[in-house]
Amino acid sequence: MLKIAYHPIYAHPLPPGHRFPMLKYELIPAQLIHEGVIGSENLFAPESLDEEIILLTHDKTYWEQLRDLTLPPKEQRRTGFPLSAQLIEREICIARGTIDGCHFAMQHGVAFNVAGGTHHAGSNWGEGFCLLNDQAMAANYLLNSGLCKSILIVDLDVHQGNGTAQIFKNEPRVFTFSMHADKNFPFRKERSDLDIPLQDGIADDRYLELLHDTLPRLIDEQQPDFIFYLSGVDVLATDKLGKLALTQAGCKERDRVVLELCKRQGVPVQVSMGGGYSPDIRNIVDAHCNTYRVATDLYF
């Protein structure tokens, strides 16, 4: 059964200026249920998370400043969010959803988090609407629990996964791969194990060619026993914050390439949604829903 982390808090703790991009967290599961792709039984609501798991990834001082709402104003501005207790609760809930999703992926091959992909959060900083790095926290949880020995993080958001790269720069058991627009945010990049910086305006054919040339080789070389996939749809030509030019069909084929490889190799995969900022919310929701549609076709 496809299991999907979803909690109402994903969409509701933010001030009015931030609500438009957060609407997708309500609309994605609603659309999938409307289509009959999933039922309510596919959704699970994450709970909270022990501090000891957070501290496997994030610096103690940074975490305590988030928890106690004492993060300096300059650092708050860097995150893009005004700090609040509800926002921290949301971040913790998202991270727990990704961790729980790992267990479901090990049972069923694939699992999703409707939110997540908070890849700009480093060990001691938040940035770009990311405060706690959900997939990095889940990867460290798997390693610390002895559940995995080799992990591959496939980040195909339009923005580089700079926080993830920084967190794992000295961790040989985690291989970080980011294929992103070179001239997009973040303007100060970190070094992933493999970065493929893309020129502005790359469209379906070249993008998919690069992915086909790279990902099968990485999986063969790294032999991961778990994969995290960040499936941001800000690669679309319609995205107002991205500089690539994929179509809806190209973005869907990207998802098929990744998920088909995971299934063929028998490697469980957890998928977090990442970014999507097209002016028309329908473009965002449809592209994200395509990722679930592809997974359902392949796995179930």
UniProtKB/TrEMBL annotation:
One of its GO terms (biological process) is epigenetic regulation of gene expression. This is Histone deacetylase. It comes from Mucilaginibacter pallidiroseus. InterPro entries: HDAC_classIV, HDACs, His_deacetylse_dom, His_deacetylse_dom_sf, Ureohydrolase_dom_sf. It comes from the Bacteria. Gene3D superfamilies: Histone deacetylase domain. Pfam families: Hist_deacetyl. One of its GO terms (molecular function) is histone deacetylase activity. Residues 21-288 form the Histone deacetylase domain. The keyword Hydrolase applies. Belongs to the histone deacetylase family. Keywords: Hydrolase.
